[in-house]
Amino acid sequence: MTLMPVLISLHLLAAVVWIGGMFFAWMALRPVAASLLEPPLRLPLWSQTFAKFFPWVWLAVILLPVTGYWMLFDVFGGMGRAGMHIHLMQGIGWLMILLFMHVFFAPYKRLRRAVAAGDWPAGGQQLAIIRKLIGINLTLGLVLVVIVAAGRYL
Predict the structure, then answer these.
(1) Is this prediction's pTM over 0.85?
(2) Which helix (H) or strand (E) holds 69?
(3) Taking CA atoms, which of 92, 95, 103, 112 is between 20 and 30 Å from 136?
C-alpha cells in the first residue's frame, strides 16, 4: 500500500501524456499543418513530431500495464475483485497498445522512408493511415477516461 501513491501517479501521468499528446496532434497540430503547409514541409514535420512523441508513448505503453497490474494484484486483490470498469480499462488499454504498435512498426516506418526519399505521395498515404489510427486510438482513450472516472459509480 505504501507504493500506491507512486503507482497511481505513474499510471495517470502515462495516460495523460499519451492521450493528451494524441488530442493535441489531432485537434490542434493536424488542422493547422494541413491548412498551412505543403507536403514537402508537412510530412517532415509529422515524421519529426512522431519521432519526439513516440518514445513517450513507448514509456506509457510500458508503465500503464506494469503499474496497472501491480495495483490490481498487490493493492486491489486480483482480477476477481476488480469491477467491470477495470476489466474494460484493461481490454481497451491493450487494444490501444496494439494499435500504437501497428502504427509504429508499419505506417510510421513507411512514412519515415517516404520522407527520407522525398516521395510525398507515398508519405501522404502513410500519414492518412496514421491519422485514422490515431483518431481511433484517441477516441478509445477518451472513452477509457470516462469509463475509469465514472465506472465505479455506475
Answers:
(1) yes
(2) helix 39-70
(3) 112
Contact status, residue 134 vs residue 111, Cβ threshold 8 Å: no
CB 17 within 8 A of CB 56: yes
For residue 110, what is its C-alpha cell? 513507411
Asked if residue 154 has pLDDT above 80, the reply is: no
Q: Convert the pLDDT of each residue in 39-70 to its tens digit.
A: 999 999 999 999 999 999 999 999 999 999 99
Complete DSSP assignment for 110-121: HHHHHHHHT-HH
Instruction: Read off φ and ψ for residue 88, nearest 5 degrees.
Output: -65, -40
Q: How far is CA 23 from CA 39, 77, 84, 90, 102, in A?
A: 22, 33, 26, 21, 19
Q: What is the DSSP letter of 106?
A: T
